[in-house]
Amino acid sequence: MPPRRRSWEAATAAVALLLLVAPSRPAIGRDDDLAKGAEARARGVELHGKGDLAGAAAAFTEAIRLNPKDALAYYDRAAVLSETADAAKALADYDEALKLDPKLAAAYVGRGRLRAASGDVDAAIADYSRAVEADPKDPLAPFARAQAEASRRNYEKALVDYDRAIRLAPSSALFHLSRGDVRRALGDLAGAADDFSRAIRLAPRLADAHDARAAVAFDQGRYVDALEDFGQALKLAPGDARAHLGRATCLVELREHDLAVSAYGKALEIDPTSADAHYGRGRALAQKGEYDRAAADYDEALRLDPGHPSALAGRGIARLFQGRYADAAADLGSALERNADDAVAATHLARLLAACPDAKLRDGARARTLAEKARVLTREAEPFALAALAAAEAELGRFPSAVAWQEMALALCPDPEAKARAAARLDLYRKGRPLRDPTP
Fold first, then answer.
1. Of 365, 410, 414, which Cα lies nearest the Cα of 386?
2. Measured between alpha carbons, how far is 389 from 342 in angstroms, rounded to an integer?
3. What is the DSSP letter of 340?
4. How far apart are CA 225 and CA 220, in angstroms?
């Protein structure tokens, strides 16, 4: 599956941009200082917009000197300081802004963002809630609160706030993108696809929306549609390693293994540290029968991420086809220790224990237990699991049962080559002979 894009994480930075400029409010002070302070603050806003953070901070400091009661000047300086990683001073300025104006919703949102970034999500949510109370018509407050809830996987709560934000600002592509991501997490793929499509209509050049819609299409098994959207995302953002990774994974599912290997290579050119890309390329290479190269990629995936959920099983399968049966058994066994419900690892370890040419590694009873588990996990819909069960029964001398399971496996085989192999094994069992893999 392509990596899940967390749009609320990307959206956090966008909130900062949306909050740069607050509306003017009257301040209290001498007329000349008030006017000069307003000019200084306006200059700061302009400099901030140009990316001159030091100049903007200096202008806001001057505005505060001229009018210490100007809550917006403190708020604006806090926004600048938060971008310069001076969180302590930014928080102090947000606090002062809110002392001067407890109704300044944007300051609650800004302070909440800093608190969320420091890991204090509870305090952040409290600030966002105060912002909602202070200005019920401001869509940024419920949006920010939704981001915080989504970061804790409180998706139902996040959805309520995203709905509210979208009612207040229905033309925001960012809001639809973020809500779609939460809907996908909740399993509402149709709703997620609708949100991503709306985001694309509102902002056709938003690469993240194409990427996200592609991931939903992949989840639904619509690999061609997913491939098209990943391609569009890459036209808009050619350096997006995740989109290259998603495209490559679609190509594997479509059995375009040469193209998949190339696409994984492009992902790794951009991000050489991607364990998922090394794993995916290993998988594609294994499908091409290039087991040595596949094993090398699995090795690298495990070096980068020792806890990778699939690389151990993948390497075990590659080693099985290399004839490195003891090493294969060790990898597949370790994969099952990590995840007892790994049907792929159970299937291949069962096959190894049933058909290994090394009698010391064969264990028909354990093979049958593992193959039976794989059969249940795959709901009798996976021919390789059924074939492993047939091989285990044959190793135990139960040839009528082996024939029955192999017939079921043959009926489910997806292509002529697989059918030919399955038919040969069926003939073997009918002759009362167990399966044996080649001797290394």
1. 410
2. 16
3. T
4. 10
